[in-house]
């Protein structure tokens, strides 16, 4: 594979007028009661920081989160919980999952549905299993078999949609029924409440980081698919840090939307190995925060993601292709620069590694044995 130059866009819509309010973290009270909850680690990477000319480089390692290999369970669990509590009509008393399952019994039999590039759907299926529901997960054509197997391993029935992730989202929306609840991490006209709670769920990551880092980061770098994670990042950091989001060159819907000044669709095929970022359309409820709070959009090719996977392995972080994207984008931003781009050198930088080796065969080919 020949490397393709990255694209950088200094966000013309960035606002510094406090228009993005910092939100309260409500989700942590749920996550702390989950079986096996522990804050994920932050890894200090002094050698990489020195190589890149940074004051420090901290990597928040989301390769293991509540028993799953990505951060996505934080949003899926909070969204499912809020959805069910709203249905129940009151917040029940509960201490552990068994209590919660019993408290939700009056809701009867339900099926949870989600479209996914892998991680969100697996997380929704996991929640369904914990709470005793069925789940049906829709994936785009070409989804790695390891990812499909992992979702089926949570007891879900998996449907491969002949099309892109965006097609899978449309197909999942059509399944909604009284006893079939769609739990999407992206939003569309008329469907905003659940994805709003998904964004809220991700705030647990940043609440942990506040307690883990002695000094707040000056630059925060995250991967972007539909932009829910980016919106949560903006809600936490926009007032005091430079925010960089990273997408694949072939599915840079954030970068193209920022350039256009409104959400625009990027047509498929979206075939990057950064599978979690293969999204052609931003989430409409994430967009106001993303467009006002992100400083720099960076789009990278697959070779950059592979290099970042190898870089992360040197500091003991096992990152999947999507998980490594943020570091790939940071490297690209430092190397390429862009007119008007913030100077990143000498800064304290935080990178989110959002996923472990969710496709182990690919991981062994790119990096070696984990
Ligand atoms: C591992 C991983 N990182 C990042 C993202 C991007 O998150 P969002 O779609 O909220 O932008 C995804 C989305 O599926 C993902 O699976």
Q: How would you portray this structure in words?
A:
- This protein is an alpha/beta fold and 370 residues long.
- It contains 14 helices and eleven strands.
- It has helices at residues 28-31, 46-52, 72-88, 97-103, 119-131, 145-152, 165-173, 193-212, 228-237, 253-260, 287-293, 302-314, 325-336, 360-366, and strands spanning 7-10, 42-44, 56-61, 111-115, 134-140, 157-161, 180-182, 219-223, 242-248, 296-300, 348-353.
- It has a seven-stranded mixed beta sheet, with helices on both faces.
- The mean pLDDT is 96.
- Bound molecules: pyridoxal-5'-phosphate.
- Residues 70, 72, 117, 119-120, 185, 223-230, 276-277, 322-323, 354-355 line the site of pyridoxal-5'-phosphate (PLP).
- Pyridoxal-5'-phosphate binds next to helix 5 and helix 9.
Short overview:
The protein is α/β, with parallel strands linked by helices and 370 residues long. The chain has helices spanning 28-31, 46-52, 72-88, 97-103, 119-131, 145-152, 165-173, 193-212, 228-237, 253-260, 287-293, 302-314, 325-336, 360-366, and strands at 7-10, 42-44, 56-61, 111-115, 134-140, 157-161, 180-182, 219-223, 242-248, 296-300, 348-353.
